[in-house]
Inverse folding.
């Protein structure tokens, strides 16, 4: 997923909604534009002590890759970093299957493409295992992957050669032709983002799809690789500091606490009241506080619906006001 900068806390809040909604156990961000990364930034995107990460810093204000995964279901045994990629040797904790993931952010300049393909080839040669490659390759494979393009370029040939030389499969992109569109020019549209997989994955997990998701903070569509996710693990209860910022929450907790009529030893009463309080907070989070997140999710998908299709239209005045574009 391309994010076009993660320094902005507002962008991270939007990304967090998407990460929760899509339920992935591994997420790769490109163009983080971060030269320095802190745990605070990571937790603001995907919270939880089970979330692990590694990253490639940006060069100045350009580039940068961040890989995050759910350590409850995936064990990352080794990491390799390059100028354009971050590779992970991953072991599924349930099935025991080992596989490689390569998060990529391809160079824009044609002169650097040869080094890009060499780096990816060397990366895949590190481990003799099934591979996923995913990210912004910053190039297209065929003319029809760019609106208005009719000529085959050298860059297209090199991309196709790389795919063929490594026997990779370019899965269908469900429901979209393009993954990138320039915001100010609806005629500039290309398929720059994709997953490529080893043939063995097509046998292990048939009917795998690349699913385009609503845009969040970038002019690129996030892509979900669906069909390879393991069973989710129920997240344990965790007190969220953001609840303390909600007016009246502290008073509500006091009201709940004093309402519990529990008899028994002091330790039993404390344990029972904490259990009751947990239930009330969970219900409050879902029924009251959770409405904020639901509204954000609804707006995210509504905006995604407006952007879908090959032709884009200018938003009317009410839509501009609704989505902050006025």
């Amino acid at each position: 997923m391309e994010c076009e900068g993660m320094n902005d806390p507002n962008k991270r809040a939007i990304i967090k909604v998407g990460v929760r909604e899509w339920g992935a156990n591994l997420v790769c961000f490109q163009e983080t534009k971060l030269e320095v990364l802190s745990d605070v930034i990571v937790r603001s995107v995907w919270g939880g002590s089970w979330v692990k990460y590694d990253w490639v810093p940006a060069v100045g204000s350009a580039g940068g890759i961040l890989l995050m995964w759910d350590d409850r279901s995936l064990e990352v045994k080794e990491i390799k970093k390059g100028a354009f990629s971050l590779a992970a040797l991953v072991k599924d904790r349930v099935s025991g299957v080992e596989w490689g993931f390569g998060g990529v952010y391809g160079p824009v300049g044609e002169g650097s493409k040869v080094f890009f393909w060499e780096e990816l080839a060397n990366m895949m040669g590190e481990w003799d295992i099934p591979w996923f490659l995913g990210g912004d390759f910053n190039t297209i494979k065929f003319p029809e992957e760019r609106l208005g393009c009719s000529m085959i370029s050298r860059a297209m040939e090199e991309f196709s050669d790389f795919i063929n030389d490594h026997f990779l499969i370019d899965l269908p992109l469900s429901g979209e032709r393009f993954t990138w569109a320039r915001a100010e020019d609806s005629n500039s549209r290309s398929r720059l983002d994709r997953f490529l997989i080893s043939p063995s994955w097509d046998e292990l997990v048939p009917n795998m799809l690349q699913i385009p998701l609503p845009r969040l903070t970038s002019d690129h569509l996030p892509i979900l690789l669906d069909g390879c996710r393991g069973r989710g693990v129920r997240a344990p209860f965790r007190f969220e500091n953001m609840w303390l910022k909600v007016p009246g929450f502290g008073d509500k907790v006091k009201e709940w606490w004093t309402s519990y009529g529990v008899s028994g030893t002091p330790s039993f009463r404390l344990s029972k009241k904490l259990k009751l309080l947990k239930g009330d907070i969970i219900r409050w989070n879902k029924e009251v506080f959770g409405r904020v997140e639901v509204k954000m999710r609804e707006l995210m998908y509504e905006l995604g619906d407006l952007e879908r299709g090959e032709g884009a239209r200018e938003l009317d005045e009410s839509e501009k006001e609704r989505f902050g574009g006025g």
